[in-house]
Design goal:
It is built from 11 helices and 12 strands. It is α/β, with parallel strands linked by helices. The chain has 2 domains: 131 residues, no CATH class; 173 residues, Restriction Endonuclease, CATH 3.40.91. The strands form 4 sheets. It has a 5-stranded mixed sheet, with helices on both faces. The protein has a 3-stranded antiparallel sheet with strand order 1-2-3. A two-stranded parallel sheet has the order 7-8. This is Restriction endonuclease type IV Mrr domain-containing protein.
Length: 333
């Protein structure tokens, strides 16, 4: 995937800071600082002494030639270019919210169907306007969390303790899987189970080769165990076994291609813990072919992915106690 040369040249101008200092919203970068810019985004590009704008444009084209996750999500490297370019500490002739710089950047990106925005972590991300897909450096759910991220995680824990199964699906899982690159996400709902066939949600994922995989989700609000006597609020894995078999054995209709297709993989998602015994029991019950189709996600997986992808918390989660804002604090992004 490529941007128009005109777009790339204008982006290069912003990175170089090619405007009078008293009018520019972007810092001027000489040869040395252009090299540092690209080193900071984990590349080894080094300015060769040629015209700065043309060298940066050529470098950006190489970055844009890297594999895209899908037609609406540029590579991680290009996402890091945007994050670094819009670092709030580089604000010039404006405050750290950088509304002037953001306006100039979005004027350039709009030609390609993208827009930049600041998230609550004060980092700038790229969003595809038509599909609302956010391009961000690949999230690592196993990295250490900041104090603010831990606070958001605790708020989400409190929400998961009280939400219903439908709220878990609608307010948490659907936004999360959309952010992770799945599309055509369809929730069956729990009001009318007549056509659910063991699936709470089905969705598609397009591989870089343009092959499409179909996924079904069976979601349970509480803990998933294998005990003979299940406590209230928990779910027994034997029930999941029947629902997974139904999910894998029944076709779904994809209206975009006008065909009925089988689910390739099944996610078992629990708002609580999925015990090791429950995983083993289900694995022993399924034959080898079906066992390879089962993926598990428990509460910790949901919490970590939700935090690192920087999704907004469900509105009800904000009702939980949080530190009162100070009037001396700067306004949020």
């Amino acid at each position: 995937m490529r941007f128009k040369r005109r777009t790339v040249m204008q982006l290069a101008d912003l990175i170089c800071g090619n405007a009078p200092t008293d009018e520019s919203f972007f810092v001027y970068r000489s040869s040395k600082y252009l090299t540092e810019f690209f080193w900071e985004i984990e590349t080894d590009y080094q300015h060769d002494g040629s015209t700065r704008q043309h060298w940066v444009a050529d470098t950006l084209e190489k970055i844009l030639d890297e594999p895209w996750s899908n037609p609406t999500t540029p590579s991680d490297t290009f996402a890091r270019v945007i994050v670094r370019l819009m670092d709030p500490t580089d604000a010039l002739n404006e405050d750290e919210r950088r509304q002037g710089a953001l306006g100039q950047l979005n004027t350039v990106l709009a030609r390609e169907g993208f827009e930049a925005f600041y998230a609550t972590d004060k980092k700038c991300y790229l969003r595809h306007i038509a599909t609302n897909t956010v391009a961000a450096p690949t999230p690592n759910p196993h990295r250490p969390f900041s104090a603010a991220e831990l606070e958001r995680r605790d708020q989400l824990v409190a929400y998961l303790e009280t939400c219903s199964e439908d709220e878990l699906i609608e307010e948490v899982l659907l936004p999360l899987f959309r952010q992770l690159g799945f599309h055509r996400i369809t929730a069956a709902g729990h009001k009318d189970k007549a056509l659910e066939y063991g699936k709470d949600v089905w969705m598609r994922y397009t591989l870089p080769t343009q092959h499409v995989l179909y996924f079904g989700i069976q979601a349970k609000k509480g803990k998933l165990d294998s005990s003979g006597v299940t406590k209230g609020g928990n779910a027994n894995v034997a029930e999941i076994h029947n629902q997974v078999l139904m999910m894998l054995g029944h076709e779904i209709f994809d209206p975009e291609i006008g065909k009925r297709v089988l689910v390739d993989h099944a996610f078992i998602v629990a708002g609580g813990e999925i015990t090791k015994a429950a995983r083993n029991w289900l694995g022993n019950k399924l034959d080898a072919s079906k066992r390879s189709q089962i993926l598990f996600m428990d509460r910790n997986d949901i919490l970590n992915l939700f935090v690192v992808t920087n999704l907004p918390l469900p509105s009800a989660a904000w009702q939980w106690p949080a530190p009162a804002p100070s009037f001396d604090d700067p306004p949020p992004f």
